[in-house]
Protein: 3-hydroxyisobutyryl-CoA hydrolase
Organism: Streptomyces polyasparticus
Amino acid sequence: MEPVRRRRAGRSRRPALRRRCRADDTDVTAIVLDGAGERGLCAGGDIRVFRESALGDPTPSRLFWTQEYALNSRIAHYPKPYVALMDGIVMGGGVGLSAHGSVRVVTERSRIAMPEVAIGFVPDVGGTWLLSRAPGELGTHLALTADAMTGADAIALGFADHCVPQAQLPGFLAALATRELTDAVRDFTRPARDSELLAHRDWIDTCYAADTVEEIVQRLTDSGVPAAKEAATRILGHSPTSLKVTLRALRRARRLPSLEAALDQELHIACATLGGPDLPEGVRALVVDKDRSPRWSPARLEDVDEATVARHFAP
């Protein structure tokens, strides 16, 4: 994350970038968030830490989430333009660092997702706020399947604002150091492709409007739409407890008054997951043993009782 400082005459032609600034620094015109390496912006946090906390001392994860969610709120209300370059992989915590910014840029390579239910967790970093405000039930579909969005999908669902070709990002970044932000955005932005998700909205809205995960899966299975049946299969592979908690969190987030209220709810839920078996098991299956065969407990949706779900929303 780097502040862009306006270049003065006689200085180097390279963008004037420094790593630290104050919000009231008058020389800083915008903050730019870019990813290191070639894969993308950010694939999320070190989920091994969450497993260690769940199996031992929960304090490190609780402290991390408290600070992370405060940062997400700060980004959303930052007084200067906050430009996030959402190129390549943007998942989990990467969404929290970018999708709350004021200028969110995707490319043709963007793959954006909140895949937390696949590890026994729930969408956080303000993800329930964003997903619950996507058109129709598209956000519910993404949350329960853990599917990824393209850049065009992200713009259509409110996770991004502009599409800049990946090859043009260096030029766009350089322009931010010498020109007005609105001019740079106008000159480098290109029309995004049509959203593939929007093309499936009819069956998505119908199936995911159900009140329970069980009924959603049943509607998907009975819909006669091949893509819907495939979605049902993906859902059934995720943590049953996480699925039920996620659906309730999304429904509640729709009625919450602010991002901060959603982040507060997510903090309660995240801390509650440390007391359950699925988060450490999901991380084990994905990144420790890498067998991709998690043994969820309970293993079936119908065996997740109301008390277990309610525990994640207790004060």
Notes: The first strand starts at residue 2 and ends at 5. The two ends are 34 Å apart (CA to CA). The beta strands are 2-5, 16-17, 28-33, 40-42, 82-86, 89-91, 103-106, 111-113, 148-149, 162-163.
